[in-house]
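Per your request, structure below.
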């Protein structure tokens, strides 16, 4: 990440101007020194709700496209070392794919990213039962989480890029969660090639909140085989081992001398087949890493991970204010999904780096709290920063 974004307020006139320019531009005219954002239709849900597609393009030609259904990022086009732009995320060509079968490709996850044991927890002595949708556990917000609702979206210009502000009001009792939650997630594409996510929420009753983003990456390019050759560094001395249903055991275990030690860059595939009980449970990497935040306060960004893809030279760094990172190596992709351009998503052809609080925190007293209370403001920030090396 080359530059910290300076927060900028909305400017409706400029937004309208950008929209006008973007919509009226041909590809050649898009060689601008300004970032632009354009809107078009992406169809309708079965209930007849319109879904829009926003295309954000920065001054260097990087392009991020996101839809209002689930806030789903449908494509991210970034250059390789030779300057060749390519889409590096998994997904579908049309809304139907996302409606029919989506293992959370590209989506905003909420209210609670990852699992809650048996979907049950207690706050101040009162027990709540959430929807269960992953065996007997609650996963990624339940049967109809934030990935399956249509968000309102507003484009906003910033000093150094463009933003898209998604808002959604989650009603009291939705998927079993207490309280009305006002959620706001802002995607910003900067001219420094950073894709930044700001997650905000307020509530009128105590409720767990753990918002994240579930984009699957393949930095060689969508459809360019498995991700096992990507080199990954995770800035974590420890991880949270899991039981057979991927619920944390409660232990913070050092990564030293385990296949979970990514403190030095390692190919994802180099130890994924090791004889390790934790890897068998994944099966593969599907674990929360306890990030080294050292003295950094909860509002400062720290480097969580760095991924390089040797054949293309693409690099992605992940910075976050969060204490945890779920590294998921696409173990449940099994060739049953045909995605963009008919590409079949085989085993481990995409990976996710989901910044988060630890899974099952509402039931784990030694994990940082995820309970949001009335009067508090939830805020977390994560940045995916793109660059190249070699070439
Ligand atoms: C979870 C996986 C799950 C996947 C869904 C990840 O965040 O950790 O266990 O299968 O999401 O696609």
């Amino acid at each position: 990440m080359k530059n910290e974004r300076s927060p900028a307020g909305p400017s409706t006139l400029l937004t309208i101007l950008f929209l006008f320019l973007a919509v009226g531009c041909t590809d050649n005219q898009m060689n601008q020194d300004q970032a632009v954002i354009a809107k078009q239709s992406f169809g309708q849900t079965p209930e007849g709700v319109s879904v829009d597609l926003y295309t954000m393009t920065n001054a260097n030609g990087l392009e991020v496209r996101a839809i209002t259904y689930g806030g789903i990022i449908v494509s991210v086009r970034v250059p390789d070392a030779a300057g060749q732009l390519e889409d590096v995320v998994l997904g579908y060509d049309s809304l139907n794919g996302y409606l029919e079968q989506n293992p959370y490709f590209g989506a905003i996850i909420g209210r609670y990213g990852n699992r809650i044991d048996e979907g049950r927890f207690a706050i101040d002595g009162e027990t709540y039962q959430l929807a269960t949708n992953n065996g007997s556990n609650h996963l990624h917000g339940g049967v109809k989480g934030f990935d399956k609702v249509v968000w309102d979206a507003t484009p906003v210009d910033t000093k150094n890029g463009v933003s898209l502000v998604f808002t959604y009001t989650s009603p009291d009792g939705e998927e079993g969660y207490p309280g009305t939650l006002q959620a706001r997630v802002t995607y910003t594409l900067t001219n420094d090639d950073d894709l930044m996510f700001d997650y905000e929420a307020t509530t009128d009753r105590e409720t767990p909140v753990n918002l994240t983003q579930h984009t699957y990456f393949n930095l060689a390019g969508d459809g360019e085989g498995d991700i096992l050759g990507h080199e990954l560094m995770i800035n974590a001395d420890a991880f949270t081992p899991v039981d057979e249903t991927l619920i944390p055991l409660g232990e913070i275990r050092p990564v030293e001398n385990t296949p979970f030690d990514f403190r030095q860059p390692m190919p994802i595939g180099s130890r994924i087949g090791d004889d390790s009980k934790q890897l068998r449970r994944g099966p593969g990497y599907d674990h929360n890493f306890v990030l080294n935040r050292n003295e950094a306060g909860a509002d400062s960004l720290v480097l969580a991970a760095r991924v390089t893809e040797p054949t293309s030279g693409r690099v992605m760094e992940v910075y976050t204010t969060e204490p945890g990172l779920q590294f998921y190596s696409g173990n449940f992709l099994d060739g049953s999904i045909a995605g963009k351009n008919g590409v079949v998503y085989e085993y481990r052809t995409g990976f996710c780096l989901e910044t988060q609080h630890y899974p099952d925190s509402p039931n784990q007293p030694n994990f940082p709290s995820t309970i949001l209370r009335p009067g508090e403001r939830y805020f977390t920030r994560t940045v995916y920063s793109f660059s190249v090396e070699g070439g």
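Residues 103-104, 114, 246, 286, 326, 328, 332, 352, 354 surround beta-D-glucopyranose (CB under 6 Å).

Regards,
D.
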